[in-house]
């Protein structure tokens, strides 16, 4: 995660950014970082699931983003992405269930590996194909 030298919350209130629409998102510079991280997670494993996207209805904050995922088995989950990792927070898109106490996973790979046997198979096959391609490259 990229660190910034300036904490936007420490800026004086009279910067005039509020009026200028180009800067309406300025206060949320860290929010974009967590959203970018979530987008990177999605792009990494999208090929191995049925559907996956960053939630547009649940709020992103400086330290959290939400990702909706539908596995190849057609199970839907809402994942929470924080500094602690990823965890399931609901069994449907754009939901959070405070009663749900699921473990954090360091990577999206281990989380999906625990949720979806089909993910494991597709991801494993992609890995094998990549290794075969590298092997052929090094032999030529």
Brief sketch in words of this structure:
34% of the residues lie in helices and 16% in strands. It has 140 residues and is α+β, with helices and mostly antiparallel strands. It comes from Ptilonorhynchus violaceus (Satin bowerbird).
Biggest pleated sheet: 4 strands, antiparallel
Look at the structure and name the CATH superfamily. Hypothetical protein (hspc210)
Instruction: Indicate the radius of gyration in whole angstroms.
Output: 19 Å
| CATH architecture group name | 2-Layer Sandwich
CATH class: Alpha Beta
Give the helix proportion (percent range). Answer: 25-40%
Oligomerization: single chain
**Helix and strand sequence:** HEEEEHH
Shape: elongated
Distance between the termini: 38 Å
Main-sheet strand order equals 1-2-3-4
> How many individual domains?
1
CATH topology title = copper amine oxidase-like fold
Global structural class: alpha+beta
Please tally the β strands and state the result.
4
Q: Regions with pLDDT < 50 over 5+ consecutive residues?
A: 1-30
Output the number of helix runs. 3
The average pLDDT score comes to 83
